[in-house]
Amino acid sequence: MSFLLQREQLLRPSGCLLALLWLTVACSALILWGNPLAPLLLIVGACGASIGLLLLPQPLAALYIALFLRVLPSGLWPLALDTVNTVVVNAAVALALGAWLLDVGAQRRPITWSPVCLLIALYILWATMTLLWAPDLIEAKKSLVTYISGFILLLLISNQVTSLRSVDGVMRVLCLIGWTTILCGLYALLFTDFQLGHRLKVLNMNENELGVVLILMVPSAIWPVLRSSGVMRGLHFALCILFILFTIALVVLSGSRGSALSLAVVLVSLLFCRSVRPWALLVSVLVAGLLASAPGLLDSLSNRLAQQEGGELGGRNVIWQASLLMFRDLPWTGAGIGNGPRALHKYIAMLTNHYNYRDDLPSHNPLLETALETGVVGTLVYASVVVCAIWQFFSSWVRSPMRDGAQTAYFPLLFAIAAGYLVSWMKSGGLGSHPTLFVLLALLTIPSRLPYTANDARRGRREQSCLGKPDRFAPDAKI
């Protein structure tokens, strides 16, 4: 009863503050803004404020909504609503943070700071220091907001996703993102003027981003199969087959060489572990069957490989060489957070005039992009984030409760997906602070936050016995 009273005392003033803030914004908009769409926006804002009040007592639900909105590719939104998308996403992340802080205050629960979160916070602090010499403060602030929102989501996940049930919730959100992306891809394939041999453009998404997002969402489609039994398991398995088929088709049709290579790396990585080897064989059969029944799907990728635009590395060798030249001139300070691409333009122009039409071309390597923006110190801290997440993943492999029961495939499955993702990550532009990177970091560190007890082991064995004898898609935990 005392806990409920404390929580009510915290939520009541927060609700009053939110209502007062909304009233102030509404009055200011009506007085200062004569746009005819103002009433409509006010109605939408009122609905959003109401949803916010409902989510304040439910921090985990607020986290799921913020995760969905933040990770859903922004290219799926119309360009005219780009500003609205930014406001909605940032508001959802802020709401999830506020709901969690209220819950922590009500329950007087300590805040857990994982090593990965601490390193990201350290990088943000150093990146903030670079504002002192960054020429374009607008771009710098945009980049900082991207890192801060990713950091907040990672902090919330590390503190709230501490049970297999909450892991199920995260996987459902990621699966919803994957299916939304697939449906948009099917719409672009069936209802636009797409022709085989050309690259599939899904709304405003970058062709290379499409494959990266879908490959990272594959574990969320497989996870329900590992966590269910009976009729529901058969339904989840059928949906998983469809998800993988559509992912393969869209990756090939996008013509992205990096995504195709990542898909191959995932397939090969799955073969190394016994517990997920049946999935590797299944994916191999699906790839062979899909390409045999529709060989025209390979036209887009074949044309990209044949053209070799910019050479075998797609022009990245020139961009990397220019990046090294710039890094030689600014090794310690960099150009400032968010200002690397524009500063790099003149160095690229020294080597080639092929990219003169672009003055915002990134280095197409996250480590180089970080080096050009934040110097040596920032690069070391940034690289430590990825290394620390991988270290936490492998160190928790031997003691996590997810090694028991049907969840035994989590670690080798995520290992394969991470290997495939990092292949594209190392040669793509704009992935240094992409939301999918923070999702991968979260998936790598989640097992270290799950407590392991004897009850967990017994529960895992009980789940496995309920599923019957280990079959091809829920095998023993012998790797």
Mean pLDDT: 82
Strand content: under 5%
Shape: globular
Total strands: 0
Number of domains: 2
- The Cα radius of gyration reads 24 Å
If helices are DSSP runs of H or I spanning 4 or more residues, what is the number of helices?
A: 18
Unreliably modeled segments: 1-11, 453-479
Main sheet summary:
none
Give a quick precis of the structure.
The chain has 479 residues and is mainly alpha-helical.
Task: Explain how this protein is built.
It is a single chain. The protein has about 475 residues and is an all-alpha fold. The protein has two domains: about 1-110, no CATH class; about 115-479, no CATH class. The chain has helices at about 1-30, 40-55, 60-70, 80-105, 115-130, 135-160, 165-190, 205-225, 230-255, 255-270, 275-295, 300-305, 315-330, 340-350, 365-395, 410-425, 435-445, 455-465. Helix 8 (about 205-225) runs parallel beside helix 10, helix 10 packs across helix 11 (about 275-295) and helix 13 (about 315-330) crosses helix 14 (about 340-350). The longest helix has about 30 residues, at about 365-395. It starts with a helix and ends in a 13-residue tail after the last helix. The model is unreliable at about 1-10 and about 455-479 (pLDDT under 50).
